[in-house]
């Protein structure tokens, strides 16, 4: 789906050849600190969070997450202090247990007050969070909603692949934190082609129905909760690497389809962390193109869509979004309450 880079737009072309042998991250045993942002999903978020934290062989790993502008936050007072705290342990031979807090600094996005970020943070022992409860939100094409209950009646929604979309929503009846990886399972058909591109955006709507836009790495207040994109012909998954919340393709032989064929496709939604208060809404926006409000000139997409796309739900077509619901421990709630008090005036140093 990526188009050739254009140097005239400031896009860079790699001048260093690819390594002749695969990079084995398990061979890395040095202490490592990863700064990962939820606002960089087009570029580095996935590799930072998954590629490093899951696969690096080091026993001494730290993860500092945030949802702000990446360079601005990377050099913030809090991030620098976190980095210095890690560096003071080495080369003194001290271990991660001597750090003073658990190794994962988790930032949970909440809202925007003007251009000021409203968020909470706490510390976790691991990533993904071990107590995560993965739940299926079933799509209903007849009502354009999502539910934790299976949908009995079959339905179908069709949109123009060039500029249309299918939208599904759920309003939460209690505070709900979604932190971690998500996965999309869709039954779809390209009605007039042998392949199709799928682009998914997850949005947060406040209690008044207004979309909450978070910072993006390249522009403030322009980014949704999370995103994912995939090409149908690459739907074959690697059974050894995939997990229910993180489908990983084989990238083997493309599997084309006949126009109108109904095909099941599973693909990843990039990791994120967002709190939905009671009365707020999670919206799933499924389209055939990159319909972002702000065009990023550093990269471009090349689509092969043609005609209409259809999504099937209910009955034999269990289309759903798998979401990571994190129940809050007593300690986690205490950290949230204390930090929320500090953020009341939205003039905090932590969200520069």
- Name of the CATH superfamily of the largest domain: Galactose-binding domain-like
How far apart, in Å, are the first and last alpha carbons? 34 Å
Structural classification? mainly beta
Kindly identify the CATH topology of the largest domain. Answer: Jelly Rolls
The biggest sheet, with number of strands, parallel, antiparallel or mixed sense and barrel status, is:
7 strands, antiparallel
Explain the overall architecture.
This protein has helices at 45-53, 70-74, 77-87, 330-342; strands at residues 32-37, 61-66, 104-113, 116-124, 133-140, 145-147, 155-160, 165-171, 176-190, 197-205, 211-212, 226-231, 263-276, 281-287, 308-313, 320-325. The chain has 352 residues and is mainly β. The protein folds into 2 domains: 7-130 and 330-342, Alpha/Beta hydrolase fold, catalytic domain (Rossmann fold), CATH 3.40.50; 133-325, Sandwich (Jelly Rolls), CATH 2.60.120.260. The strands form 3 sheets. Strands 5, 6, 7, 9, 13, 15 and 16 form a 7-stranded antiparallel sheet that branches. Strands 8, 10, 11, 12 and 14 form a 5-stranded antiparallel sheet that branches. Helix 1 (45-53) links the parallel strand 1 and strand 2 (61-66).
Provide a compact summary of the structure.
This protein has 352 residues and is mainly β. Helix content is 11%, strand content 34%.
Descriptive terms for the model:
mainly beta, Rossmann fold, Jelly Rolls, 7-stranded antiparallel beta sheet, 5-stranded antiparallel beta sheet, 4 helices, globular, disordered C terminus
């Amino acid at each position: 789906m990526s188009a050739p880079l254009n140097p005239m737009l400031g896009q860079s072309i790699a001048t260093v050849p690819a390594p002749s042998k695969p990079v084995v991250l398990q061979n890395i045993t040095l202490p490592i600190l990863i700064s990962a942002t939820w606002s960089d999903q087009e570029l580095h978020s996935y590799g930072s969070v998954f590629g490093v934290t899951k696969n690096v062989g080091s026993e001494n790993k730290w993860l500092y997450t945030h949802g702000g502008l990446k360079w601005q936050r990377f050099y913030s007072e809090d991030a620098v202090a976190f980095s210095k705290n890690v560096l003071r342990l080495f080369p003194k031979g001290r271990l991660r247990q001597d750090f003073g807090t658990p190794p994962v600094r988790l930032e949970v996005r909440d809202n925007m007050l003007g251009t000021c970020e409203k968020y909470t943070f706490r510390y976790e022992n691991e990533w993904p969070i071990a107590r995560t409860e993965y739940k299926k939100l079933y799509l209903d094409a007849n009502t354009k909603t999502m539910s934790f209950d299976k949908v009995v009646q079959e339905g179908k929604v069709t949109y123009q692949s060039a500029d249309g979309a299918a939208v599904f929503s759920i309003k939460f009846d209690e505070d709900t934190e979604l932190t971690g990886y998500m996965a999309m399972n869709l039954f779809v058909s390209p009605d007039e082609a042998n392949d199709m591109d799928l682009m998914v955006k997850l949005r947060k709507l406040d209690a008044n129905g207004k979309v909450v836009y978070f910072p993006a790495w390249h522009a403030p207040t322009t980014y949704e909760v999370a995103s994912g994109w995939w090409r149908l012909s690459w739907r074959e998954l690697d059974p050894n690497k995939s997990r229910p919340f993180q489908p990983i393709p084989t990238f083997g032989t493309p599997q084309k389809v006949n126009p109108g064929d109904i095909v099941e496709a599973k693909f990843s939604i990039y990791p994120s962390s967002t709190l939905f208060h009671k009365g707020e809404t999670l919206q799933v926006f499924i389209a055939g193109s990159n319909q972002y409000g702000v065009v990023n000139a550093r990269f471009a997409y090349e689509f092969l869509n043609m005609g209409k796309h259809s999504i099937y739900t209910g009955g034999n077509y269990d289309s759903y979004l798998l979401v990571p619901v994190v129940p809050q421990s007593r300690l986690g709630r205490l950290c949230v309450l204390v930090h929320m008090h500090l953020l009341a005036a939205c003039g905090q140093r932590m969200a520069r």
